[in-house]
Amino acid sequence: MSERENADWLDSYLEYTQNSEPPTSFHTWCGLAMVSAALQRRVYLRWGFEVIRPNLYVVLVSPSGKARKGVALGIAKEMLQAVPTLHVAPEASTREALISAMKRASTNFNDPSDNVVKFHCALNRVL
Predict the structure, then answer these.
(1) Phi and psi, residue 124, nearest 5°
(2) For a designed S-S bond to 105, which of 42, 43, 53, 87 qualifies (C-beta 3.0 to 4.6 A apart)?
(3) How far is CA 35 from CA 55, 87, 97, in A?
(4) pLDDT tens readout for residues 78-118
């Protein structure tokens, strides 16, 4: 098996973004949201009778124009859009455009938790 290029993806992402204006906390949460988006529903943790999936809903909060939220989100969005199997929702769209984007983002996968083929729509939203 080949060696990993990066020992820890999140640390590498934080190193990549270290010379940008937003605080490290914004980049950390954007990085975690990106990992969640990449994992989709293909990874899970059994917790008793529950199945926990890595779904994250992240909101960056700061006064407008002060902490450069848009810069942190822009870096994450650009990286997500570079991955052909991940789908990012448009920032503003009509109902029809959103439905069309959801159709393009839908996939079927074999869920290892019960070995059943399931439908999944992973449409990520970066605002």
Answers:
(1) -90, 140
(2) 87
(3) 10, 13, 26
(4) 998 898 888 776 665 677 777 777 777 777 767 777 777 77
Phi-psi region of 110 (alpha: psi -120 to 50; beta: other; left: phi over 0): beta
Q: Where are the domains of the chain?
A: 9-124
Find the DSSP H helices in 1-127: 9-17, 24-39, 69-81, 95-104
Q: What are the phi and psi torsion angles at 47 (to 5°)?
A: -130, 90
* Closest to 41 measured CA to CA, from 31, 55, 29, 58: 55
- Tens digits of residue pLDDT in 18-74: 999 999 999 999 999 999 888 887 888 899 999 888 888 888 888 888 888 889 989
Q: Enumerate residues 6+ apart whose C-beta is below 8 A from 125.
A: 88, 89
What is the four-CA torsion angle of 110, 116, 121, 125, rounded to 10 degrees? -70
